[in-house]
């Protein structure tokens, strides 16, 4: 892991405001407790140590997000004799409850409870029972507050992740739907234009091989050629109008865009392990087909098994072909009409490749494709 990855994000304006407010509250509460505790019959030396260490703990609150547990343990030690550290200790309990697991939070609670017991012996607290009940109630309330904030943040983060995942799924589905629609239009227009052009070829050939044709026959053939050419031109304009990309649309994806596609799925919460080992110059149509296969596989994984790990292997070499394999835990009940996989089979067949899919004995869903790669 590099240093840039380990580096923590800088404080935002909100963080500075919250940390400043927390510091002021800790100092204010600490001063109140210190003034009340100075009335007890303790030595001047203990009061001085109380003030110094309590103030240092308040200053350490600026680093509470980085070392919450360490500072909370330090607070438990200082809290055995310091009133000035009382406010900072309460804030650190809340901080641990927000940022750490429940087991760690309970550990800090026990440490503070022991610290309170030692404090009663050091400061000769007269009303021991009342002090224990009050301290326990305050610690429990602070811990519950912190746990509530933690659960609320986790809920909000889960909702954000779901929204991001839904957005990525919708985008991938829209791209796949657009691709399938364009393929259907292209196949239909191929048949239509093929028929029109076949008529042109037949009648033009008749004119070329029958120089003795009558004027009426030549005029009739020319009219058929003109009408067929006009209709073919109209059909071509229609298909171009449908398939023309809107302004600002990115170019068609290539094989080099695979890592970007995978990274987008990772940001949506899908753990993807990508292995690419395909050195050499891959034909453009084969690379685009491999991209679409991985895209459809990720769409199905996000749709049918969200959050489950996906393993992708793209390997190959010239003359051996390109091998694309995807594996992810298969859901107990698969939904969908399977048209996406059918479209992938057709796309693989268009480049003289093959595609396989289904459950494995290990209970995974496997999508495998072999695509030709000329030497």
- C-alpha Rg (nearest Å): 36 Å
Secondary-structure element string: HHHHHHHHHEHEEHEE
Structural class: alpha+beta
Mean pLDDT: 78
Beta strand %: 5-15%
Number of beta-strand segments? 5
Count of structural domains: 3
User: How do the strands line up in the largest sheet?
Assistant: 1-2-3-5-4
EC number: 2.7.13.3
Pfam families: DUF7134, HisKA_3
Domain DUF7134: 14-153
Transmembrane segments: 16-34, 46-63, 69-98, 105-122, 128-149
What does this structure look like?
- The protein is an alpha+beta fold and 375 residues long.
- The chain folds into 3 domains: 118 residues, no CATH class; 63 residues; 117 residues, 2-Layer Sandwich (Heat Shock Protein 90), CATH 3.30.565.10.
- 66% of the residues lie in helices and 10% in strands.
- It contains 11 helices and 5 strands.
- The longest helix is centred in the middle third of the chain and has 82 residues.
- The relative contact order is 0.06.
- GO terms for molecular function: ATP binding; phosphorelay sensor kinase activity; protein dimerization activity.
Short précis:
InterPro entries: DUF7134 (IPR055558), HATPase_C_sf (IPR036890), Sensor_HK_TwoCompSys (IPR050482), Sig_transdc_His_kin_sub3_dim/P (IPR011712). Keywords: ATP-binding, Kinase, Membrane, Nucleotide-binding, Phosphoprotein, Transferase, Transmembrane, Transmembrane helix, Two-component regulatory system. With 375 residues, the chain is α+β, with helices and mostly antiparallel strands.
For the structure shown, list the relevant keywords.
375 residues, alpha+beta, Heat Shock Protein 90, five-stranded mixed beta sheet, 11 helices, 5 strands, 66% helix, 10% strand, disordered N terminus
